[in-house]
Amino acid sequence: MTENLRDKPDAYWRERLTPEQYHVAREKGTERAFTGALYKNHDNGTYECVACGQALFSSDAKYDSGCGWPSFDDPIHREHVELHEDNSFFMKRTEVICKNCGAHLGHVFNDGPRETTGQRYCINSVSLRFIPKPKA
Question: What residues form the catalytic site here (predicted)?
Fold first, then answer.
């Protein structure tokens, strides 16, 4: 398990994250749809939290939902993420955050593939770091 970083001061995050990463992960921002570096990534590997390195999603769970952000039907381990009610912008949504460091990742919706979990974890590319699976 990685170090618990939830109580680190603002300066800690500003030193480690780019301005865009900081805005999304620490200020609950979002990147524009269809612009994220990982949106069209189809390689095999693991998606980690950009802030702390906690493994969050597998490429096996990634699918093209057409929403403009990387979409997954389930996290690697559900205990690696927390879900919180988000009523901002006059909408009722469920926010997804990294349980280890508190980074904002995106939102989860109940309109995902019915043949799996039925969920769509709509996650900002900038909140993730992709680690390719080693080639055999």
Answer: 122 (nucleophile)
